[in-house]
Amino acid sequence: MAEAGTWWALPAAPAMLLVFAVLAVAADAALDARNAGRRITAHTAVRPLLAVPRALLAQPRRLPAPDRLLWRAGVITVPVAAVLATLVIPFGNRVVADLSVGVVWFNAMEVLTWAGLWLAGWGPNAAFSLVGGYRFLALGLAYELPLMFALISAATGAESLRVTDIVGAQHGLWYAVWMPFAFVLYLAGVLAFSFLGPFAYPLGRDVADGVLGETSGVDRLLLQAGRWLWLAAGAAMAVPLFLGGGAGPGLPAWAWSLVKTLLVLAVLVWTLRRLPMLRADRYVELAWVVLLPLSVLQALVPALVSLTR
Amino acid sequence: MGLTAALTRAAAARPRVLLVTTPGGTPVRLAAEKELRSRDWPSASTPAGADLMLVAGPDCSRLGPALERLWQDMPRPRVRVRAVTADEVASVLEAGRARLATPEGDRGGADRTAGEHGHGEPGKHDAESVRADHAKDDRGFEGGAHARHHDDGPEASGHGGEHAGHGGTGHGDGDDDHARHGHDGHGHTGHGHGHGGMEMPGGLAMAEPGEDRDGLTLDRLHVPLGPFLADWPAGLTLRVVLQGDVVQRADLDDPPAGGPADPFWSRPWLRATTGEPVCVGEAARRRAAAHLDSLGRLLSVAGWPAEAVTARRLRDDLLEEAPASAILPRAERFTRRVGRSRTLYWLTRGVGLLSAADARAASVTGPAVRAAGGDVPARYRQWLTEVMDAVRQLDATAPLNPVAQESPRGRWDAERPPSAALVKLLPRLLVGAELGAARLVVASLDPDPDELTACRLEVARG
């Protein structure tokens, strides 16, 4: 059902990802303004984008004995991995690269942020930054396995790791409906790998912004952009995995993809401010004792259905 | 040039502000927080993320070096301004923004450090003097953005001390042995870099390993917390020894005996003790606002910025004499949302256990003693309860009895202010806590260093 990538799909995918990320930033800014009692105007929503000219002007950091190579590599990895992850996400009927192992590709790109964020914490040679980097590993231990089982649930249901096959297999019944727990875990995983809101633990205010604390200028911009790009990529991937992709009555496939992606993004942005930051020492306990067994059980459901079919 | 100027102007429309409060600067901080919120200027938690440094409060000579290090650590373009009184906050911020919006070339040599304009110290901090003071610190003054090409070779050893506090805390520490702390704090280099006779990377010493509580041998990092950490009692300095992110040791620095500070939060009680008539309603308003300020700080440290903003808005409205009828429903909603949050309870329960008996033995009075259960959630719930009680008393006109009715942090006693007991508890409570938990403990007790300064002054006078 999906067409192979035409030439313009390659630049279009990152551009769309960027648009979604900017929309998420704007929505978050509007919610911030409402919370702080400021008037909400179109201007309010785009003010966070002033960070871009600021980043271009700012002087980069000079610290005692930084590990510059690894630092830079880590900072760049985060947004680049987010963009690479979108290559396998179908939008409407189009996808840049319809890999036979698309789900694995997405997951692999997401795991790259582990390395990226840890290196970004290690590089500046500063205590709080390093603590922030390690915090992401601790958080990763907690969120990654349930997230993987959520992805596996969808793949098992379709008996394929190809994302377009997963879309095709959901004819009539979205996976979000009969695998709700996997869907919720996936959404939590999206917040976690974009380290935003309740999962901002590696960048906590209690460790003076952790990984972000010693960065300035373009480095800071890349890390911040990486977070929102990942949020957008995660929201876009939720649509083919759990919400039937571009399928829907009346509208063309791309329109359904657009609507569903925006809805998922809205839910995620709304969630950001509803919960305090999850501390990994507490969350690991919940993840391994409760979430992980439940996610295995959830993955069993499509497995049994496939066996008896 | 035209492009750079346009970018500079655009970037200056929303500067990120490093708000640094000196002891005694509470009213200025409150005004600044309100101003920043209404202008939508984000508050930075480290110098690296800031364009504008706002020093709020009176001059404190002892913290001067720490302030200077924060300033040195800010990337250009940058501006430093100071507000001594709450009234001048708005104008000082506006002046800072205007300066930021001017392209560097037009600002002349004495530009960004000359933030103290209008306070009678022109040129004191001009670029030349900064350069002389920090001869080794030539971070790309010429042509900002090219600093990344600088060689970090032997010169960089000069950064060791320079950078001491920042590396660890994002903010400086206040005294002269910072170089050693800096080295230890930065040298997580027990990881296979050269030992022994080899040259250390960047001229920094290695962290020495030591036994930790789990029987592992981990590097000891000496990290100062404070005096200017974000969401931290202004001027308080705790020197902690970290292994991993667990506090192995915590030592309290003497509070900076700075200028003539009077503790903003206990002012009604101070006035009542001198015989001035103060009514219960006014004291209740101050108490509610003080608890909301502490709650805002705790929520910010706990990583719930949205609710922290709610708490601070309520606080500011209270201090602006908003009527009880306007405050009550909002306070109720806030209390419900935070007090009944299971997530927040689950994340903080069991942290910073302090039994009522221990607290009494340490002569703590106030909410920290009354909080049944003695952990962080017990203390924030106690604050919430007391906020609601205080808000219901806003219109009471009876005269305040400063002995029977407690000040926000406990029974007011000029000789032994309630915060003194809280501060003394900190080192003991922090040992063994993970860094994030340690921050929660400090925020949940929230001692007010201004009270300590007041106490010292009175002792000195007497």
Structure, described:
Chain B: Residues 95-215 are annotated as: Disordered. Chain B: Residues 104-141, 177-187 have a biased composition (Basic and acidic residues). Chain B: InterPro entries: NiFe-Hase_large (IPR029014). Chain A: Belongs to the complex I subunit 1 family. The complex is a heterodimer of chains A (309) and B (462). Chain A has 309 residues and is mainly alpha-helical. Chain A has one domain (9-308). Chain A has helices spanning 9-35, 42-46, 51-57, 68-85, 102-122, 127-158, 163-169, 175-178, 180-193, 210-213, 217-242, 253-272, 280-308. By secondary structure, chain B is mainly alpha-helical. In chain B, the strands form three sheets. In chain B, strands 1-2-3 form a three-stranded parallel β-sheet, with helices on one face. In chain B, helix 2 (26-39) links the parallel strand 1 (17-21) and strand 2 (52-56). The longest helix of chain B is centred in the middle third of the chain and has 22 residues, at 280-301. Chain B starts with a helix and ends with a helix. Mean pLDDT of chain B is 74; it is low at 108-199 and 457-462. At the A-B interface, helix 1, helix 3 and helix 6 of A face helix 1, helix 7, helix 8, helix 9 and helix 11 of B.
Defining key terms:
heterodimer, A: about 300 residues, mainly alpha, about 0% strand, globular, B: about 450 residues, Rossmann fold, Cytochrome-c3 Hydrogenase, chain B, 3 domains, 3-stranded parallel beta sheet, 3-stranded antiparallel beta sheet, 20 helices, 8 strands, about 10% strand, disordered C terminus
Main beta sheet of chain A: strand number and arrangement?
none
Work out the strand percent of chain B: 5-15%
**Distance between the amino and carboxyl termini of chain A:** 23 Å
- Give the distance, in angstroms, between the N- and C-terminal Cα atoms of chain B: 62 Å
Full CATH superfamily name of the largest domain in chain B: Cytochrome-c3 Hydrogenase, chain B
- C-alpha Rg of chain A, in Å? 19 Å
The H-and-E topology of chain B, N to C, reads as HEHEHEHHHHHHEEEEEHHHHHHHHHHH
Q: Count every helix of chain B, treating DSSP H or I runs of 4 or more residues as helices.
A: 20
Largest interface between protein chains, with number of residues from each side: A-B, 61 and 80 residues
The total tally of domains of chain B equals: 3
Q: If strands are numbered along the chain, what order do they take across the biggest sheet of chain B? A: 1-2-3
Shape of chain B: globular
Helix content of chain A: 55-70%
Q: Low-confidence parts of chain A, pLDDT < 50 over ≥5 residues?
A: none
* Name of the top-level CATH class of the largest domain in chain B: Mainly Alpha
Share of residues in helices of chain B: 40-55%
What average pLDDT do the residues of chain B reach?
74
Mean pLDDT of chain A: 88
Cα shape of chain A: globular
Main location (chain A): membrane
Pfam family, one (chain A): NADHdh
Subcellular location (chain A): Cell membrane; Membrane
GO molecular function (chain A): NADH dehydrogenase (quinone) (non-electrogenic) activity
